[in-house]
Amino acid sequence: MLTLHKLIYRLLGFDLHEITTGIYTTSKAVPGIAISSSRLILIDVRLFHQLTSEEVQAVIQHEIGHQQLRHHSVWIRAMLTGKATTELREQQELEADAYAKQMGLGDSLISFLERALPALKDKPDDLKQLERRIQALRESVYN
Ligand SMILES: [Zn+2]
User: Which of 60, 101, 115, 123 has its CA 20 to 30 A from that of 52?
Assistant: First the structure.
């Protein structure tokens, strides 16, 4: 069934390949790592193929965390207005990371985030935010 969200993404030029219910890969570059809206999760197919199955599960649980914590409305608002409320978004990332950690995927999420670090070498603010997320996960996973 074609949901409104799928239709919107298709109109925006995203090819969608369902890997499991509600979760799709796309070959179009996804801003960030993955997009979660209230109805679907998109993961960059190039990234997807580099990941272990545990890392894929960690990414999916992180994105489900955004949905469960009802982050999508703020995310869409930020996307539509172009106003990246960076502090708010970082808080949401930390919360979604904590959700994945609660599912027992903290270690896998750390290894996934470490894979993403090199891609951010030219974006110092994003790099620092990712390092803070890894640090927060390390502290909560291992202590
Ligand atoms: Zn996130």
Answer: 123
